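haha ok so turns out i had the wrong file open the whole time. this is the CORRECT one, sorry everyone. sequence first:
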Amino acid sequence: MAEFCLRPATPADSENIRQIIRQTRLNPMGLDWHRFVIAETQGGKFAGCGQIKPHRGGILELASIAVAKPYRGRGVARLLIQCLLADETSRPIYLTCRSELGEFYKRFGFRALALAEMPSYYRWLSRLANNLLLAFSESRMLVMGLGLPIVEKHV
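then structure:
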């Protein structure tokens, strides 16, 4: 028997979604429960969540991947990401993450993008976030993409 099960979110999940997004310090914008997948224990305890968030211009973002502390390191994020990517066949899909999580997302086929490859929203966000992060942290924000052609660099 699997330790966790996945299901579409319901209105009753809204507060758990908002709470875990606050706790994990993720972007609190665009938390529409209709788009979320919920991971829960066999006993029905909320273990984590994630969504595919649409942006203007048909851009899709893998977002709000959050796992409650007691369930981290047990494959919950992997299950959520696999489910969300399987259910969303449109490509490309973007994501933003701290630089130290880049290797994790590479396992799902994402790759870090150069500024020139990013849609304008992500270029703006990347510049803003990385300028702010430089002042407070060694971490950087990565913008990654799935289903994008690889841009060759000419030297």
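Residues 120-136 form the longest helix (17 residues).
again sry for the mixup
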